Amino acid sequence: MPTSELLDGVPYWTEKMYRPGGGQDHLGLGSVVTDRILPRLSPGINVLTIHPRYWSFYAFVLSEFWSRDLPRTKTALREWYRPLECIYSVACSLCENPDHYGTPIGTRRIAGLVADEPNGFDPQFDYMESAMGGYGLYYSTVMQTVGLVALADPRLGLPVDAVTPEGQVVAEAFRAVIADTEYYRDWIDRHDEEVPHEVAAQYGGLACFCRLRDESALDRPLLVDAFLHHGNPAEAEGRRQTLRMFCELAAQTEADAVDAPSFRRLVYYGADHAAEEGASGAAFVPPAPLGRTARKWRLYQAREYFNASVNEMWRRLSYWGLARDGDIYPVPMAELLASIDAVDFDAFVESVGVDLPPGGLTPDSPYRELLEWVMSVGGVTSQLDDRWELDRDLTEDRIIEWLGYGRQVTDHGPGVLAAALTLATFVAARLWPPELALVEPADWFPVIEGGRDRLGMQRFIDALRTRVDAGETIREVARWLTLDYVIAQHERVATAKLPTTGDTFRFRREAGRLRFFPKDAQVGMNDSRFNALATFVYELGWCGYLYVEDHGLTEEGDLLRADGDLPVSGAFDSPAAGEGA
To answer: Are 301 and 267 in contact (CB under 8 A)?
Structure first.
């Protein structure tokens, strides 16, 4: 029957067209960081390529394959490769070096095998699902970027991956390290027999990724040369500068342990919290030669805080809808807008112990008042390279902690929305003057990346400036962000994922209402690659392990810190090495 009233029920297909999917990155913000920003800050060193010696090991495995009379097929390479990586993982797990940090590829399955202390290890043990193990999943493409391997290309007459001449040099150095081990002499070809425990242990004592720091590691200077000089010149320069920055960071924080959250604070604020009450925390002041590199990392972290603010609005909305049984009865948009209009700054600031400006902040307050309060309480100077104060009454770091960002939190109260809006305002305030983009335009890419489809931060700040100039209220800005940056963006991203990931919707609009779906809505920071980079500078022998105290620089690390480069090894006779030099 015709009616002008909203019906109590809205038709809903019970037969799903797409399989349910958990999904991640529900607003498409994380991919901007992982695919576009971090690859320009640390080219070739990513979250999962942690141990540099794996470059040597994989070059060695490919070299050994091509030195044998084996079929040049993917099947034959796989059958050769997997037993060698399995035993290498076992050997690294057996390493007794007191300075051993981290775990080998396949450790989730290998750890239990090693813990049983068998007399021998089966090379055919199913240590991971991927056919080509860690090489296929993580290392092959990055090894190609530094010129150590050539990936299979039938058009070039290359049926399977192979080492390049530079990769062969690295492989020979690794081979020389293990040449006298019983494993290399007697067991490397015996894939159907158990490798004795003592044989694997001896192999690990020389070949383990942690042994790259040893004087006997003939492959170490070659890897240093490759990482600093090989591959695309612009990418090699990016790697050099970031590795140099980590050496500088190690020197300036020598007495303090540094982890990923500490690193974020150090590159953003130039300071970290004190480990003990009454003590001074670590500090990081980039010297002039590292000014631009440090600025890029700071802008990257600004992007992370911006992402967090929008993600928190998304998480808050998801749990708010489920608390109202929005998965059973779609919630009218009028109720959603009313929840936004109830944004409560009093509840937020009371819990964090700061004071609002005289007269407070209400949904009807001009957004400019929120912006000015943030600049005051946070000591924001709007200068790109100023020291930003971590110990102010309110900061991005403190808001993140209050929100429980990255932890299992289901709070959806009005204080959460106020905190998320304040966080977004902090980031905008830091970068408010338009002329900051002109300080060094080539460094501004973390702000620009994302554009319209992926909520670029530049787009957000430009639009916010226009709205502030127009006198819009906190209510109007909060509605804009929720409708455009949260609801519309989530629908856009979830729709794009349907063919590949499945149904990852947490909510979607239906006839003027919002239907919710009972799935988790957890969010968190993207991996900053801190662990990979900290492990690199440690295992390459440039400093101690950043996660522990007293991680000062070695002589070579101090040289890289001072000069921004190290001499070419001379072992590679290739154009790439010449260009890098």
So the answer is: yes
- Whole-Å CA distances, 350 to 145, 376, 398, 419, 498: 52, 17, 14, 12, 42
How long is the chain? 581
| Max Cα-Cα span within the chain | 88
For residues 182 and 55, give the distance between their C-alpha atoms in angstroms, rounded to a whole number. 22
Tokens for 546? 């950043």
- Give the number of other CB atoms < 10 A from CB of residue 459: 16
Q: In the numeric block, which tokens belong to residue 234?
A: 């612009």
The answer to whether 148 and 63 are in contact (CB under 8 A) is: no
Q: List b or e across 176-213, with b for residues whose CB sees 16 or more CB atoms inside 10 angstroms.
A: ebbeebebbeebbeebeebbbbebbbbbbbbbbbbbbb
pLDDT, tens only, 125-141:
999 999 999 999 999 99
Strand order in the sheet with 513-516: 331-332, 513-516, 507-510
How many CB atoms sit inside 10 A of residue 487's CB?
A: 20
- What is the overall mean pLDDT for the chain? 92
Token digits of residue 523: 């969010």
Q: pLDDT of 357-392, one tens digit each?
A: 999 999 999 999 999 999 999 999 878 999 999 999
